[in-house]
Design brief:
By secondary structure, the chain is mainly α. The chain contains 23 helices and no strands. Helix 11 packs antiparallel against helix 13, helix 13 runs parallel beside helix 20 and helix 22 runs antiparallel to helix 23. The structure holds zinc ion. The site of zinc ion has 6 residues, from helix 11.
Length: 456
Amino acid sequence: MLYEAQTSSGTGNIVHSALEKVLDILQSTELFSPHIHQVKEEDPLTSDYVDGLCDRTAINSQTNRQIYGQKNSISSSSSKLQVGVSSRQSLSMYKPSAEVQSLLQGNATWSFDIIQLESLTNKNVLVPLGIKIFERFGAMELLGIDEHVMASWLKLISDNYHSGNPYHNATHAADVLQATAYFLDKMRPKKLLDAQEEIAALIAAVIHDVDHPARSSSFLVNTKNDLAILYNDIAVLENHHAAKGFQLTHKSDNSNILKNLDREVYESLRHNVIDMVLATEMAKHFEHLQKFIHLCAANIKPVSEDDLEKKSGGSSSAMESGLDSPENRRQILRMVIKCADVSNPARDTHLADRWARRIAEEYFQQTEDEHRKNLPVMMPHFDRNTCSIPHSQYKFMEVFLLSMFEHWDGFLDIPEVYEQLQKNYKYWKDVEIQEKQEKQSAVATETSPATPAVLS
Ligand SMILES: [Zn+2]
């Protein structure tokens, strides 16, 4: 149809050349991420993000990168599995204190303070918060298990996050779980998704970064790590997290939350969990976002006064019935976990600030490792001696978050999240100005001539 439209539009005009461009994009392998190269050219930091996070081997299989041979330093999939809690008695140690219980009361709010929970629980956030959230969604009934199996599974997964990672640790998993639950609770997902899909999303959130080595997929490819070899350089980390999550789940009956599911339910749940974990790969960011925008445009009419009136009368669902297809539901689930995974810049500013410094620290360590091993430096901007964390944060928001959360707010009606993101965007710009001024005045003090000695 496009070819026909192009032919009939005649040559040399604006429509003809626009259609030429459209056809070029459609023929490329980057169907839904056509503007990735445009954003890349904007500035070096944007280019760092796209190269470093959107693993170019997955974006463009023709990229002929030079990979330097180095010995692996990251533990591979064959690393020892941690053993879960096996008896009811031992679970008593995870009984939350009164202080933790009172904090957990707020687990369904956007301002939930996960960092405070981390310090109150000595970094064991995933079990108490997980129990609370899975309970809230009726997971134990749906899975046919008791609380002890759930707690044991959460502990097992938690133990397989690396507590030494500045960012990709069990607290991040718990944070993503909390955000996932928050989004699932909103009206549209509540109406569209069934209980099994909700539980799949919560499980996916818990395992989505398990055994993360605090290095990116590109780093694993560049070091010829066993995981990169195993997954043929494609979505290395995400494939590993999904596989490792299931491997751990099936390790022992005591902690197997899926052991009582019928084959059919199990297969459908497993499919959804894997699909969601793989959707957290940043290389697919623009593809998933574009598909979601298209899905909304095709099925959701802009809300007018009339619609609002109809809504209160309960007849609005007909115009959104198109949303309820298996592929659309899957795409919504992908967005739930994707948005949850990168939602910490939209948290209360004091939390967003902490997360920003943690991710920067993890990137700094990777850059140092790359220099030490004489590897290509994937994100040179993240050099601890020169990096401006405020700049890196608001650039990340510009490239990946502002547009996504604007659409996500349009879909979920979560102005508190989108407005907080915008507030933090302004916060980081202000901090950058402040830091620049401090630096300038420090330089001025250093270079100003010493006060002349008073002549007696
Ligand atoms: Zn994550």
